[in-house]
Specification:
By secondary structure, the chain is an alpha/beta fold. Strand 14 and strand 15 form a beta hairpin. It is elongated.
Length: 242
């Protein structure tokens, strides 16, 4: 069960999110308010997994609130809600889970919730990442666009500071997400980080020659980074017959 909080200075916006949350069985609303400072006290005493947070509020900006909230709950996820698209990049600089532009549709809300479910399940010590969904959604622009990516479509992933490029057989999808955060969304038995800039699917490995990995589908060659070499070699030993 995902425990969530709504913070917005517009009661009508809170009402819309409440209605949407009622449609999702495994999300529990534990607090909603137009007064963000009250939530800081709430977080000191009660668990929460997710905050729907308006960026523009009278007493404190959403970005400053994120900094304070994560001092109390470092792992809490944030979905920003706003009528202004210019805050998107600033929000992703603070590793928000998603960014919703008002008026928020139920379809876009459900896409955002899908992005929350995956890391929440990974952080559960009794869960098995083999039980995760076979896909994820990634924000591919500042205007609410999301692209569905299936794990079995990925040929390799390249990190570019706060963006990632996901290569498939048919396209290159550039998403607003760090490689580090995307790594947490991917099932560990299917994907390996082999370089500070690359993640590869295990099924795409054709051969390994020294520090170079040759991939099947794209004929791409990726170097193994020094930092990741030991972990990758241990992975090979664990999956070798001798």
């Amino acid at each position: 069960m995902i425990k969530c909080i709504i913070i917005d200075d517009e009661p009508d916006a809170i009402h819309v999110l409440k209605k949407y949350i009622e449609e999702v069985p495994d999300i529990q609303l534990v607090n909603s308010t137009t007064k963000p400072m009250e939530i800081l006290d709430h977080l000191k005493l009660h668990d929460a997994d997710l905050i729907f947070l308006d960026i523009e509020m009278p007493l404190i900006s959403g970005i400053n609130f994120i900094k304070l909230a994560r001092q109390i709950r470092p792992g809490i996820q944030i979905i920003l809600t706003t009528a202004y698209s210019q805050y998107a990049v600033q929000g992703f600089d603070h590793e928000v889970t998603d960014y919703l532009l008002k008026p928020i549709s139920i379809e876009r809300f459900l896409q955002a919730i899908q992005r929350v479910r995956i890391p929440t399940k990974l952080h559960d010590p009794v869960s098995d990442d083999k039980d995760l969904p076979a896909f994820f959604f990634i924000s591919a622009g500042a205007k609410g666009k999301s692209v569905k990516i299936r794990f079995d479509e990925i040929h390799y992933i390249e990190g570019m500071q706060r963006y990632v490029a996901i290569y498939t057989a048919s396209e290159r999808v550039v998403g607003i997400l760090t490689l580090q955060k995307l790594e947490k969304l991917l099932p560990k038995h299917k994907f390996r980080r082999v370089h500070r800039s690359y993640i590869i699917p295990v099924d795409q490995i054709k051969s390994i020659d020294g520090n170079r990995i040759y991939l099947h589908s794209t004929h791409t060659v990726i170097d193994i980074g020094v930092t990741y070499r030991e972990d990758f070699m241990n992975f090979l030993k664990d999956n070798s017959p001798v």
